[in-house]
Amino acid sequence: MDGNNCPQTRLLDLGLKDLWRYRDLVLLFVRRDFVSTYKQTILGPIWFFVQPLLTTLTFIIIFGNVAKLSTDGLPMLVFYLSGITIWNYFAQSLTATSTVFRDNAHIFGKVYFPRLTMPLAIVISNLVRFGTQFTLFIVVWGYYLIFSDKVQPNWLIVLTPLLVVIMALLSLGLGMTFSALTTKYRDLAILLTFGVQLLMYATPVIYPLSSLPIAYRWLILANPMTSIVETFRYAFLGSGTFSWGGLGYSLLISLLVLLLGTIIFNKVQKSFTDTV
Amino acid sequence: MIASLFMSDIAIKIEELGKLYRLGEIGTGTLTHDLNRWWARLRGQEDPFAKIGESNDRTVKGQSDYVWSLKDVNFEVKQGEVLGIIGRNGAGKSTLLKILSKVTAPTTGRIKIKGRIASLLEVGTGFHPELTGRENIYLNGAILGMSKPEIHSKFDEIVDFSGVERYIDTPVKRYSSGMYVRLAFAVAAFLEPEILIIDEVLAVGDADFQKKCLGRMKDVSVNDGRTVLFVSHDLNAVSQLCTHGIIMKHGTVEYDGAMKETVARYLNHDQVSPSYVNSIEKDSSEIYIDEIHVRNTKGEVSASFQYDEAIIIDFKFHASETSINKGRDIFVTILDGRKRPVFSCETRIEKSHYSLVIEANTLVRGDYSLYAFVNLPKIAQLDVVEDVCNFKVIDAGSIMSKHGEHDYGVVFGRYNWL
């Protein structure tokens, strides 16, 4: 920690150099997240699989069989699982990063290290979680690929890493914004928990975009997560929609949100211990 | 500005530092205050709430919700200097350290720091109960700013210093609190920043371990030539370690000077008084104690003494021609900090003024007071004064001082090793 402590800093001083110096810490936080979540559980990392499977099962029963929502002619299991795999990463990263300041107030109040290490570590450790859930999806998807002709993947599969990166940026940016603002206004934390739930219904997770009336489609398309879920489905399952414009829009929004989040986060981190 | 800083030997320079805190609940009202503030800043005006902030005196009920926890703080720390910061609770010491360690930003002023800072406002920050000792060493080290290879190279020393080698692969939640603290301090002890900030972390562990910590800190500052900032209530530890001291009071620097003078000044401004003056009316046909003053060899009333300084206790009696020959004794007992008698002495009162001289190298470091009475042998104790004239003995150099807080008695014995 070199340098000076002044009341104001330049708006765009993101402290990335400092962050790089503390890169070991990011990895140690990732490790800590893992060890602490699954220590003293019997199933351990198996929970990674149990959770999306149970959610998918619930969706099949409620939305598939009771509400009879369209799945674009795809097998329900693979349709819902694809949506959940993608959505989970976004939702979990977002909720976890949004409480960074509150959860770590005792550490932040005692020692300085670049605060950005914390949300970054969360997004990365969720990436590992996503990896295992994605593997589960691939297994299910592979089964349908071999034993059924309803699943028709295409070359857009190569875009998957890009989709994950866009989601990571978006959840990091949103999470940082919320975590910074909740240090003072706790109301936002409450808003966020059900906001994320509501947002899922505004994203084509449990229904395909094509099932919506054209007149309302723009509303759902304004959600940057829409193109990501749709692209993922289109690439792996062959149904859904894909447009470069939509994906570009998601990327642009994510970058803007990330920039905004980083600025707010850096501003708040300097004095949040006084208000939290 | 930074360039000029590098030319000099100043490690930390603090200018016009101030920190404003809002008291009370943060809830309704905060948003309006924030908007007001933002609007004022937008128009280039002064913060409307900063003006009404008051100096930080806890004991006086303020008019405003805002308080300056620090105001107009200026000082410099030279490279390799060990600065002790003393002051009462709430004087702003911890806020100052928080700002120095970048945990929070100041409201006004600036700090210039040359070199890498590590701060220990608490030991074991970021320790996770589920992780093993080994994992926590790496995590805690990284939080404190060490890189992985750096921790790796010091790992054995850290484990050795902590003395918990057997449990290094056990989750720390199974540790006793003593082991936990030892491990935590050990990580901190092997930090190698250019500037180290320490807040009362020595108030942990058993006497033995405290001694070890103090020794290690001395090592860091004296042998390695690092700049150290040390906040503590333990004046003995402060005077042993530090060369330069400042006194904080109500959020400002009250005194800035050499450590020895700083401690002396701090003690003399303490509310406990090294003097006793009789304030009630007493039977004037009898002898009673009028005044007692504890003085140093220069004749000044003083509340603090170096261990190798003589302590002079002046007694002034109210006595008349007739009462003085009645055969009364003055009996004096020196009490230690826990009010245990250290030793007693008496003399027949034959004049109205006596000086009791306690020779240098008698009392060890600690707090003392007096218990005295006019004695009518075997019949009555007339005019008893209890626990008056508080004074303190500071020890920064005797052969026993290295034992820190270990209880090695209350007097230096007179002995010989043959």
From TrEMBL, chain A:
<dbReference type="InterPro" id="IPR000412">
    <property type="entry name" value="ABC_2_transport"/>
</dbReference>
<feature type="transmembrane region" description="Helical">
    <location>
        <begin position="120"/>
        <end position="144"/>
    </location>
</feature>
<dbReference type="GO" id="GO:0015920">
    <property type="term" value="P:lipopolysaccharide transport"/>
</dbReference>
<dbReference type="GO" id="GO:0043190">
    <property type="term" value="C:ATP-binding cassette (ABC) transporter complex"/>
</dbReference>
<comment type="similarity">
    <text>Belongs to the ABC-2 integral membrane protein family.</text>
</comment>
<keyword id="KW-0997">Cell inner membrane</keyword>
<keyword id="KW-0813">Transport</keyword>
<dbReference type="InterPro" id="IPR047817">
    <property type="entry name" value="ABC2_TM_bact-type"/>
</dbReference>
<feature type="transmembrane region" description="Helical">
    <location>
        <begin position="74"/>
        <end position="91"/>
    </location>
</feature>
<dbReference type="InterPro" id="IPR013525">
    <property type="entry name" value="ABC2_TM"/>
</dbReference>
<feature type="transmembrane region" description="Helical">
    <location>
        <begin position="242"/>
        <end position="265"/>
    </location>
</feature>
<feature type="transmembrane region" description="Helical">
    <location>
        <begin position="188"/>
        <end position="207"/>
    </location>
</feature>
<keyword id="KW-1133">Transmembrane helix</keyword>
<feature type="transmembrane region" description="Helical">
    <location>
        <begin position="156"/>
        <end position="176"/>
    </location>
</feature>
<feature type="transmembrane region" description="Helical">
    <location>
        <begin position="46"/>
        <end position="67"/>
    </location>
</feature>
<feature type="transmembrane region" description="Helical">
    <location>
        <begin position="214"/>
        <end position="236"/>
    </location>
</feature>
<keyword id="KW-1003">Cell membrane</keyword>
<keyword id="KW-0812">Transmembrane</keyword>
<dbReference type="GO" id="GO:0140359">
    <property type="term" value="F:ABC-type transporter activity"/>
</dbReference>
<dbReference type="Pfam" id="PF01061">
    <property type="entry name" value="ABC2_membrane"/>
</dbReference>
<feature type="domain" description="ABC transmembrane type-2">
    <location>
        <begin position="43"/>
        <end position="268"/>
    </location>
</feature>
<protein>
    <recommendedName>
        <fullName>Transport permease protein</fullName>
    </recommendedName>
</protein>
From TrEMBL, chain B:
<keyword id="KW-0067">ATP-binding</keyword>
<protein>
    <submittedName>
        <fullName>ABC transporter ATP-binding protein</fullName>
    </submittedName>
</protein>
<keyword id="KW-0547">Nucleotide-binding</keyword>
